[in-house]
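Pasting as-is:
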Amino acid sequence: MKKINFVQQVLPHILAVLAFLIVTIIFFNPVFFENKGLEQHDIQMWDGSSKALRDYRDQTGEEGLWAPSMFSGMPAYLINVEWSYGPVMFFKKVLTLGLPHPIANIFAAFICYYILLLTFKVRPYIAIAGAIAFGLSSNMIIGLGAGHNGRIGAIAFMPLVMAGIHLAFSKKKILGFGVTTLGLALHLRENHLQITYYLLIVVAIYGLVKLIEAIQQKILLEFAKTIGILIPAVVIAGGTFFGPLWGITEYTKYSTRGPSELVSEESAEHAALSKDYAFDHSNGIWEPMVMLIPNFYGGATVNFLVQDESSNVYKALVQSGDQQTANQLASYTSAYWGPQAGTAPYYAGAIICFLFIVGIVYAEKKYMWWLVATSALGIMLTWGNNFSSFNYFLFDYLPGYNKFRSATFALVIPLFAMPLLGLLGLENLLKEGWKNDTLKKLAIPFALTAGLCLILAMVGGFGSFLREGEQQLPPWFTNALRADRMSLLRSDAWRSFWFIAVFAVVVYARLRNWIKDPVFAIIAFVFITFDLSFVDKRYFTKEKFQSKRLTTAMTPTEADKEIMLDKGYYRVYPHPQQAWAEAHTAYFHNSIGGYHGAKLRRYQDLIDSCLFKQTQALFQNLQQGSTDFSSYGTINMLNVKYMALGAEKNSIIPNPDANGPAWFVKEVQNVNSPAEELKALCEINTRDVAVVDASKFQVPKSVYDSASTITILDHFPNRLKYETNSQTGGLAVFSEIYYPKGWVATIDGNKAPILRADYVLRALMVPGGKHTVEFRFEPAAYRIGNKVTLIASWLMLVVVLGCIGLEVKKSQEQINQP
């Protein structure tokens, strides 16, 4: 009877988990030893946007589903909805050892990439270093610092999905089925479809390579069987995300990620985000060089050279003797000189870049072609509008691709592929050992990486070191600017050169058997950890950690406190220069502004047209001392009772002309298209007139009762109740955003069709007399989708545990064989 070899089969994995845990604790030590939390801008904004939903859940135990405090109201699917994910979250807690969110995602990245490398038969001790390279890439750390927790979580579980698929294709179909199911369920739970799209690209190219291999080896039937095993895994994992996917897919059509109704049907066919918006963040052609040399383009845009008293720029500004000019030029001293408006370098690691080329030389050709092609495609995607002939074509014709923005996020594809190919190459190199041509083969990756770094370190690069528009600045200033930026490049080029050179010597020593595997593994782990963590700490400083009280709470301003004395139901207009990119207001009030990348499309149309024009006119009148709001129909129909222009109490401007929560209109103006509807809306008094698109909604004629009233009785995120009183009845307009999927209206308990008026608002035909009107948000995406999610999550649990059990039983049988 065979016995388990603890040292060879168990100890490496225990050491791996301990190594990952130690690195996580040390890197994020203020969280563990100083009771601090991460200061994340996007999470602070999420805190504001989701406050009403979380409060409602705490008070009632129900899901609000509709976010009332942002952009006058919008579906909550992309803000804060808790789905029945229980079993999926159980596995995440187990996999991450219960570490606190969001740093648990970095630990998950270590674990998942380690598993991936093991499935590709990379020896455990060096797989640890590869996993560290993936989890500590600056892409992960910078993203975490920005608050992109969902994106980083989705990236963290990409390797587990790929590991399951590879196991299935490696004749371990049962285990592959279970790992794929679990990995994909965990990945989808993070709810970042852009990263899921990139994962599909990686998997598709892998599948193509496997298909070609199956054709060459004449094993198409085996290929088909493997696909047959993986399809149920995808279905079950997808089922755990069924509710969220339904809700998001349904919402996308009506959001800024969907087509605008203001364009022609022909152009709407491919419309989603505009190309300018989608490719606003695009890498320069040479910018992927930051994966090798982090300061190739100077580093982060927020790093200003003038802050360093030893810099040439600082000295030149001081020596100029002109304080006013110096102050003006200080804003041009960003260390970054690339084409992006705001960025920080996504560093892969000098050693990983070296190993990637080693992988091209030594890894199996099928994996080499897969991972090189994947990396090349990912880099081309990051070029965005700087490679428009390619990326615009994909934007127009690749299904779903036009729903995403921030082309630089595609860098996750090469950052995923490079450590894998590098470690596969290193594994094969170590297996092959020293041969007569080994030195010649290794000279190629060394020359392409260390040699390039050495050239750049010596000559300082070949760029202009100036951003667009900086050529017009005084020569004495631009000379200093060039010198500082060149110095940053040269310094990091030397840094990368020495990391590669020393590591190459260590590889040589291992191949000549001057050192053994354990020593080599420790050196690789230490070098890669130090290489990446030192660069990470440039952008993830101790200032990122704050007292948990400061990172989890927003403080009301004096203006907020004054407005909150009004216990009525109304909205607040934040300062228009900040209204569409802040969620502080939404934390304390119902805001007509907010912070979100996917507003309702019609609401964005309203902002860009009527609201923009009327706000401009309002500010002109405010400057002349007039606070008359009566002529600003769009602002009034959104029930804006207060405009908060600052934090001080005296910055509040009350609006006595707000239409209120609901009102009967005197007249209905019918139009025949969305464009006509929006044009007419900008010109009417919304208190008296409602604009209705007659091509979509039919409103019968009615007589207006000047004594009619509508009073709001209750208001919650997912339901509102009103009392109407009118002798004649008529069209009642409600200052609530129209959304066609899920809202149900009743009049005295009987269903009534919801109409759309004034481009974005709900309306009802209410009969004469006294009535109770109620709106309830009961979307099928949640009502039905959440049940499917719950069932699929428990099925996933059974499947994963069953597959683990079968694999353990199979292993025991193999051990017990004589």
